Amino acid sequence: MSITNLLENWSDFRHQHPSEDRPHLEYKWAMSIDLDSCTGCNACSVACYAENNLPVVGKEKFAHGHSHHWMRIERYWDNDGREFADQGAQFLPMLCQHCESAPCETVCPVGATNHTADGLNSQVYNRCVGSRYCNANCPYKVRYFNWYDYPTTDNVWPAPMEQQLNPDVTVRGKGVMEKCTFCVQRLTVAKSDARTEGRLVLDGEVQTACQQVCPTGAITFGNLVDPLAKVGKQWMQQQVDLNKDKQAKDAAEDAVKLRGYRILEELRTYPSVMYLEQLRESAI
Amino acid sequence: MEKDIREDIAWAQINKDVLKSLESPRRIYWVILLIAIAMVGVAVGCEIYQYQTGMGVANKNNSHVWSLYIATFIFWIGMSHSGTLLSAILHLMHADWRKPIYRFAEAMTTFSLMTAGLFVMVHLGRLWQVYYVMPYPNERWAWPNFQSPLVWDMFAIATYLSSSVLFLYVGMIPDLAICRDNIHAGWRKKLYTIMSLGWEGTDRQWRNFRMTYLTIACFLIPLAVSVHSIVASDFAMSNMPGWHVTSFPPYFVAGALYSGCAAIITLFIILRYVFRFEEYMTLPIMRKLVRLTFAIAMVWTYLNLIEFASVWYGHDQTAKDQLIFKATGPYAPYFWAMIFFGSILPLMLAFKRFQTHLPILFVVSILLNVGMWLERWMIISPSFAHGHYPWAWDHDQWPSLIQWGMVFGSFGWFTLLFMVFCKVFPSVSMYEVKEMVYHRSLAQKHKPAVKGDY
C-alpha cells in the first residue's frame, strides 16, 4: 500500500465535483417534479415505504422525529395575513436531492457516502459508523437515522409482515444513516439488462417507485445524458443547468414562462432534482 | 509586593508536605471519591441502556442529530487547554508562579481529554465500528475520508492526548524519584521505581531532562492551538447557519483557555483544602491566576462580539435569522445565561477584593464553566432548530435524561481520574518548587540596591 497508490486511488474514490470536472459519460440520473401536478396524496411516500423496506415507526416515535420517510410531502400555507389560505396548502415532495457537490459526502469520516459514476449519492450501510455528520451538514435534512433496531422491534413488521419486505433491498439495523437512493436496486437491474443486450438503458425502461405510483404523473425520472429522455427535455425547456448555481428563471425579467428551479441552489450543492413551480391563479 | 511563596521553606519540608498528600488527605477526599464513583455509575448505566436500545433513547431526532454529547465533548476538549497554557506557554515565558500549580493543571489536561474522547464514542450510532475512522491497512482498501473534519479530530485528539500524557510523565520523573526514595515497600515502591526510570539526579540527567522537557513544551503549544481549531472546523467547515463562521477557530481556542483557567481555579481551591497545600498554592498565585482568567474572559467576549457583528453585517440572511432565533427563540434563556456567565460575571474578577476571596472564587469559577458549557450547547442545538430548511424548524427537541445522565456522569469520571491521580502521584511539582524557593532566597540574599530590580 504505497503512498502513490493511496493518492491515485484517492482521486478515483472521491468524486464530488459538478460534472464539468468529471463529466458523466453514460448515465446521470435526475428527476423533475411538477408541483403543479402534485396533489399531495402521499402515494409516493407510501410506495417508497413499500419498495425500500422503510420501517413504520408508529405514532409516538414519529412525533419524536424518528420517522423514515425518504420521500416526504411537505405542506406550505400561504396565509398572507388571512386566517386561512385561499388556495389551500402547497405541497412539496422532498427527497434526497442527489447533489452533484453533496455536502454530506465531504464530511463523512469513514467515506460511507459517496458519489457514483451515475451521479447518485450513495450510502454504504456497512461502512456507516453513525456519526450523523452527514445529516448535520445536509441543508435539506433528507437523511434519516436508524434510532432503534427496527428489524428486531416487534410492531414494525409484525409477522407475517416481514414476508412483504423487498428482497432486493437491505433491511437496516440500528445506528446507520439512510436516505433516498433513487431506487438504486431498480437502476442496477435495468443497467445490467441493458448491458447484456449491449446498449444503454432506454428512457422509461426504469422507474422509481415514487414515479411509478404518482397518479398525476408529477414525477419524471431518467437519464440526463440521454438526449431522448423526457427528464432531460424538461430540464432543457426550463433552462435549468446542472452545473449552475443560478438558473435562467432567477435571472431573466421576462422569464415568467420558466418554472424550473432547484432548492437552495445558492449553497452550490448542484442538486439533481428540478422542481417546476406551482402556477397559482394570482400568478396568471 | 506579596510573595508567591515563602523563601524560608526547607527543601526537606517541601518533600514532606507533598509526600504527605499521597498518604493522608482530609476525610473529604474519600467523600469526593465516592460521589465521583456514584456519578460514573449513572453514566455507565445510561450508556449500557443506550448501547442496547439504540440512539433514540437520547431523544435526538432526524433534524437534531447532534446534541449534548457533542456540546459536552467540546467542553471537555476546551478544559484540556489550560494545562498546556500553564505548563508550556508560561514555562517558555519563565513565569515562575506557575510552578506549584502546573502539575495538576497538566493532569487536568490529560483527564479531560480522556473524558472528551469518551463522548465521541458515546455519540456514535455504531460504537462497535469506531475503528473505521482510523486509517489501518486492510484488504478492502477502505480508508477513512481524509476530507472529513471528524477524521482530523481523531488525529488531533490522539496526538494531543499522547503528547500531553508524555509531557505530564516526563515532567514528573524527578519527583517520582523522590517518591521512590522515600517509600520503603509496597506496590507504590515498585511503581515509582519503574516509572522514575533510574533517575539519580546527575548533571547529565538534568541536562537531558531540561532539553526533553523544553522540546515537548515547544511541540505542545502549536498542537494545543491546532486541536481546538480542528474541533472548531467540525462546525466552521459545514454549511449550517450559525456554524459556518470564519472566526470559529480562535473563538474556540479562547473559549477553551477560558473554561480551562476557570477549572484550574476550582481545582486549586479543592486541592489546597483537601491536601493542605496552603504553603504552596498561595493566595498571590491565585491572584495571578484570576487575572489571567479575567484577561482571557475579555478576549472571549471580544471574539463573541466579533462573531455576532460579522453575522449581523454579513450577507447571509439565514445566519442572521439563526442569530435572532438564538437570542429570542426557545433557547433565549440559555443564550442570555451564557452571555451573563461568560461576559458579565467575570467582570467581578477585576476587583482586587474578590481576587483572593476563595469561597466567592470557588462559586464564580464553577459558574464561569457553566457559562462555557452553555456556550457549546448554544453552538450546537439552535443551529439544528433553525437551519436552512424550514421543514426542520418545528421539530422542537429536548435532550432526554439519558443524555443528561451521561453529561452528569462525565464530571464524576473526570473527578475520579483526577482524584486518584492526586493520591498516587505528587500533584505539586517538588523539584520546581525547590527551584522557586532557591531563586527567591538567592534574590533575598543579594538584594539589589535599586528597589524593584528583581
Topology:
The complex is a heterodimer of chains A (about 280) and B (about 450).
Chain A: H1 3-13, E1 29-34, H2 43-51, H3 59-63, E2 72-77, E3 89-94, H4 103-107, E4 113-115, E5 121-123, H5 133-137, E6 144-145, E7 177-178, H6 184-196, H7 209-213, E8 219-223, H8 230-237, H9 248-251, E9 260-261, E10 273-276
Parallel strand pairs in A: 1-10
Antiparallel strand pairs in A: 1-8, 2-3, 4-5, 6-7, 9-10
Chain B: H1 11-20, H2 28-53, H3 68-79, H4 81-92, H5 102-123, H6 149-182, H7 186-195, H8 203-236, H9 248-274, H10 283-312, H11 317-328, H12 332-344, H13 352-355, H14 358-385, H15 401-424, H16 430-445
Helix pairs in contact in B: 2-15, 3-5, 3-9, 3-14, 4-5, 4-8, 4-9, 5-6, 5-15, 6-7, 6-8, 8-9, 9-10, 9-14, 11-12, 12-14
Q: Could you explain the architecture of this structure?
A:
The complex is a heterodimer of chains A (284) and B (454). Chain A is of the alpha+beta class. Chain A has a single domain (15-283), classed as Alpha-Beta Plaits, CATH 3.30.70. Chain A contains nine helices and ten strands. In chain A, the strands form four sheets. In chain A, strands 8-1-10-9 form a four-stranded mixed beta sheet. Chain A has a two-stranded antiparallel sheet with strand order 2-3. The longest helix of chain A has 13 residues, at 184-196. The mean pLDDT of chain A is 86. By secondary structure, chain B is mainly α. Chain B has a domain at 11-237 and 247-294 and 402-441. Helix content of chain B is 69%, strand content 0%. Chain B has helices spanning 11-20, 28-53, 68-79, 81-92, 102-123, 149-182, 186-195, 203-236, 248-274, 283-312, 317-328, 332-344, 352-355, 358-385, 401-424, 430-445. In chain B, helix 3 (68-79) runs antiparallel to helix 5 and helix 6 (149-182) packs across helix 7 (186-195). Chain B is globular. In chain B, 48% of the residues are buried. At the A-B interface, helix 1, strand 2, helix 4, helix 5 and strand 6 of A face helix 6 of B.
